[in-house]
Amino acid sequence: MATGRVNLFNNNGTSIKSIQVGQTLMSQNSSSINLPIEKVDINNSIVLSVPLKATIMSASCCLGSFVNEQTIKLYRSDSNYAIDIYYEIIEFENVKSFQTISFSLSSNLVLTYSKEINEVDPNKCLVFLNYRTYKTGDTSTSYGESSWYYTLGTNNIKFNFLNNYMGKNCTAYIVEFN
What's the gap between Cα 115 and its chain centre? Predict the structure, then answer.
């Protein structure tokens, strides 16, 4: 496992071009919502989302994605309840590489996902993961959140999920700094 220090500052002072934050209420029976944002370069940006004050575990996971440069879409796990969702859009600039990986774990029995990636220096990377869960089969346990960790190599990444009771739709971002 690589360990190291990531410098978020480059010669111009920063590798973060912009940060946008917001909060929205997703009403009951609504599984997704489109939201306008200030224009960003979606090839160098990430969208992260998290529910606020989720009262049940199955409502506690949500996934954000870009529709275009000025719109994001937020999805959530359980539409039986109204829920507030907090979101962040972080736009990077002057980074060495930026990779986006979308994947699904369609079974509650799948605990790992491995993927070959373009070569990176693991000591100069930050990895972000955003996901939502969905029920796969008839289980009496309906947890939405799952602990996870990753292993990043120079040409691959492996995600490991713990307490995995549901299938997941995931988006991961690998940002490599200079």
Answer: 16
Judge contact between 95 and 7, C-beta under 8 A: no
Q: In this predicted structure, what is the pLDDT of residue 111?
A: 77
Residue 81's Cβ-side half-sphere holds a number of Cα atoms within 13 Å equal to 16
pLDDT digits (tens, 9 = 90+) for 45-66: 999 888 776 555 545 567 889 9
- DSSP state string for 96-133: SEEEEEEEEE-STT--EEEEE-S---GGGEEEEEEEEE
Indicate the pTM of the whole model: 0.79
The encoded tokens of residue 59 equal 């409502």
Residue-wise pLDDT for 14-47, tens only, equals 788 999 999 988 877 777 889 999 999 999 999 9
Exposed, middle or buried by CB within 10 Å (0-12, 13-18, 19+), for 46?
Answer: buried
Q: Are 61 and 132 in contact (CB under 8 A)?
A: yes
Give me the DSSP letters along 58-81: GGS-EEEEEEETTEEEEEES--SS
